[in-house]
Design a protein that fits this description.
The complex is a heterodimer.
Chain A: H1 2-16, H2 25-47, H3 49-52, H4 63-75, H5 78-88, H6 95-111, H7 116-119, H8 128-131, H9 140-166, H10 170-178, H11 180-200, H12 218-244, H13 251-285, H14 295-320, H15 324-348, H16 364-385
Helix pairs in contact in A: 2-16, 4-6, 4-15, 4-16, 5-6, 5-11, 5-12, 6-9, 6-16, 9-10, 9-11, 11-12, 12-13, 12-15, 13-14, 13-15, 14-15
Chain B: H1 24-31, H2 37-48, E1 57-62, H3 71-79, E2 106-112, E3 115-121, H4 130-134, E4 140-142, E5 148-150, H5 159-163, E6 170-171, E7 180-181, H6 187-190, H7 197-201, E8 207-211, H8 212-225, E9 245-248, H9 269-299
Parallel strand pairs in B: 1-9
Antiparallel strand pairs in B: 1-8, 2-3, 4-5, 6-7
Classes of the chains: A mainly alpha, B alpha+beta.
The complex binds iron/sulfur cluster (3 copies).
One iron/sulfur cluster binds at residues 134-135, 137, 139-140, 150, 154-160, 180 of chain B.
Chain lengths: 395, 300
């Protein structure tokens, strides 16, 4: 027993040390940003939101909500979509990338949704909706907050067999693996509700949202868009990690992953088209063409044609001609489209009537902190992939 | 004694079915549709609304009477321990002012075809407030007397600001311990039978305190008696489901800084569709997923 404990300690200490080269371009670029971000976070906590952000009385939400939370959660949607495919539809082929996707989803929630903490003016009250001081049960945000927490736990449970395997705890792994299907069902249900809930969040601001963007279908649009946003993220993430961590994979593995990416690209095309079709219906039903010949109308067309229809077309083509490059471009474009869409709801199409001089533009601190959060997530992701059997075939 | 002209005392026994669409009962019915939907709220919700049937109080602001003396601003500052505004400074009207964290009410001047019109601004105390539905910790609350108040258990998420159609809640950005600030309709006074400080301070009796039912009646009477003096509309009677503060004007309301395009639907209603669907998804979705899981397994 004693010996086992000492061994475990030694093992953990050993694992804490950095692996691989230290002076890579990525490290050299990101480390200073992470450090700067950490300082700015302290600054924000001690001097308030006015000192660090460009938020105003007219624009109470900026990129910390628009990017970190709204977009970050949509990008993390890949986890619920893939767990659906693998554990509910039992499509074994995708099993290869499920661990990395779940890990990425979990970390995205921890880091991006964790950014809510920075944005909360009175962050010391963050536990109030959880401990019942008070339960604002009529609030959409109350639902979203609870779901974030529960979903994080669900994702952690889904990933936990990997941790057990890493620590060589065979019994625990068996127990935890048995929980997977139940947890997946729970997780998908939560995701359906909070992905759409993020959309429902902005709906009370109807008078302040440009009519081209406001529709009673916002929750459904948010849900559908989280499908292709999440899958696009999976495509980008697996493309990158299979290059970076290529030594962990064998040749057969790599071919299979390419195959998976091509299938995902067809799924993305489908989801994007469904999304486009919904938007079109809303457009026609609401007689929205009267708004088209204006600045906002043009901006709307850019979003819908440039970042929905165009990537949809690319995904379709890339999938058909087995062109991975085109698929990757499409994935990046559709992700940019999601960023634009969420920004629209939070501060661009929101109060569109205010003049440019009164509008919100993110401050340098807001951008640096956001980048720091993204990079920190990637660091942790890399740390785990280098140690746990995420990409590697499990033993 | 003097207060008779500023306050409509509640007249007992008069039950009229005026078209005040949303009373307290509806308020609880509508907002009691929350997250756990039927299960939680419809079980416990209705009981709450069976308490004393109080009517919402409000204030009727007759802009045709206001002379822009800003005594209300001064009184509000005094009542809420804010720095006193310099009411002698008339240049202040050159710019449109917004309420701030330290000034819950401001009077603006609008140049219209009917001459200068002064308009007091503050929270409208909506009958079904978006800010209250937004709040996940019930820091924003609709009190049974009508006022919408803020409490310290707030997390500072600012969804109330994001949702308010009148841009009223203000956030203390400059502080590390920020608060949300807005007019409370002097709830601390109203709940013990008192009246809002600004109402009592107005030398012109431009502000009238009473139940919303009585205020509407009074507003209608004024329009009826002086049809050429007033623009025939009571702002706040129906806007976003009705507000406790009501306005009368001599010119169309767009000309004195009001938005008239926000419709009469209470804003929380836009999310009830989603909230109603939550319990269904919570129950049916897992069953469906489980079924699919079983079916695909067998096919293997
Ligand atoms: S005016 Fe705004 S802050 Fe006041 S009650 Fe209505 S929604 Fe709330
Ligand atoms: S900022 Fe405070 S009062 Fe406003 S919705 Fe958030 S928790 Fe509620
Ligand atoms: S009701 Fe009270 S808090 Fe509101 S503006 Fe008047 S004095 Fe100020």
């Amino acid at each position: 027993m004693m010996e086992a404990e000492i061994n475990l300690k030694r093992f953990l200490l050993n694992e804490l040390k950095p692996k691989g080269k230290i002076f890579t371009v990525f490290n050299v670029v990101t480390l200073p940003i992470i450090i700067a971000g950490a300082f700015l976070i302290f600054y924000r906590i001690f001097y308030g939101l006015g000192a660090t952000t460009n938020l105003s009385q007219s624009f109470p939400w900026g990129i910390w909500i628009g990017f970190d939370v709204m977009t970050g959660v949509a990008f993390a949607g890949g986890a619920y979509v893939l767990t659906f495919v693998v554990y509910i539809l039992n499509a074994k082929k995708y099993h290869l990338i499920i661990r990395a996707t779940v890990l990425n989803g979990f970390l995205a929630y921890v880091f991006y949704a964790g950014a809510i903490f920075l944005d909360l003016g009175r962050w010391w009250n963050i536990l109030n909706p959880l401990i019942g001081n008070h339960f604002g049960v009529n609030s959409v945000l109350f639902l979203v907050a609870w779901h974030f927490l529960l979903y994080m736990i669900a994702e952690f449970i889904e990933f936990s067999p990997v941790i057990a395997e890493w620590l060589n705890l065979q019994k625990a792994k068996k127990v935890l693996s048995a929980l997977t299907v139940g947890t997946v069902i729970f997780g998908i249900t939560l995701s359906t509700l909070h992905q759409s809930g993020l959309g429902a969040l902005v709906m009370m601001a109807k008078p302040n949202i440009h009519p081209l963007w406001y529709t009673e279908f916002i929750p459904i649009l948010f849900f559908v868009s989280s499908i292709f946003a999440g899958l696009s993220m999976v495509i980008v993430e697996s493309s990158i990690s299979h290059k970076v961590f290529s030594e962990q994979l064998n040749e057969e593995h790599k071919k299979e992953v390419d195959d998976i990416i091509l299938s995902l690209s067809r799924a993305c095309a489908g989801a994007l088209f469904g999304y486009f079709f919904l938007k079109l219906l809303v457009f026609i039903h609401g007689k929205h063409w009267v708004y088209i010949f204006s600045g906002m109308g043009l901006w709307y067309m850019v979003e819908v044609i440039g970042f929905v229809l165009f990537p949809c077309f690319l995904f379709l083509n890339g999938g058909r001609y087995r062109n991975l490059k085109v698929v990757r471009v499409a994935a990046v474009l559709s992700m940019v489209g999601i960023i634009i869409n969420r920004f629209n709801y939070v501060f661009i199409a929101y109060k569109w009537y205010l003049p440019l001089s009164e509008r919100y533009f993110p401050s340098i601190s807001e951008i640096v902190i956001t980048l720091a959060i993204v990079f920190a997530e990637i660091w942790v992701f890399r740390w785990i992939v280098n140690r746990m059997p995420v990409l590697r075939e499990s033993t | 004694m003097h207060s008779m002209d500023r306050v409509i005392k509640k007249r007992k026994g008069i039950k009229k079915s005026t078209d005040i669409k949303i009373g307290r009962r509806d308020f609880f019915r509508l907002t009691g549709s929350g997250v756990f939907g039927f299960m939680l709220c419809n079980l416990f919700g209705p009981k709450k609304s069976q308490g004393a049937e109080k009517e919402f109080y409000g204030v009727l602001c007759d802009t045709t009477r206001c002379i822009g003396c800003r005594a209300c601003e001064f009184a509000c500052a005094e009542a809420n321990n804010h720095p006193s505004p310099d009411t002698e400074d008339k240049n202040i009207f050159d710019k449109k002012r917004d309420t701030t964290v330290k000034q819950w009410t401001v009077v603006n001047r609008y140049k219209t075809r009917a001459g200068d019109v002064f308009v007091k601004r503050q929270c409208m105390h909506c009958a079904l407030p978006a800010c209250v539905s937004a709040c996940l910790v019930k820091a924003m609350r609709k009190r049974e007397e009508g006022p919408v108040t803020w409490d310290k258990n707030c997390m500072g998420c600012r969804l109330c600001m994001f949702s308010c159609p009148f841009d009223i809640p203000k956030f203390e950005y400059e502080s590390a311990y920020p608060t949300i600030e807005k007019c409370s309709m002097c709830w601390d006074r109203i709940k013990v039978g008192g009246y809002p400080a600004c109402v009592m301070a107005c030398p012109q009796e431009a502000l009238l305190f009473g139940t919303k039912r009585d205020l509407i009646e009074e507003a209608r009477t004024r329009i009826y008696k002086h049809p050429s003096k007033y623009y025939h509309y009571i702002f706040g009677e129906h806007e976003v489901g009705g507000t406790c503060w009501l306005y009368l004007s001599s010119v169309p309301f767009e000309e004195i800084g009001f938005r008239t395009d926000m419709g009469n639907t209470p804003l929380p209603e836009y999310t009830t569709g989603f909230l109603y669907s939550v319990p269904f998804v919570l129950v049916l979705w897992p069953l469906f997923l489980l079924a699919v899981n079983r079916i695909t397994k067998r096919e293997d």
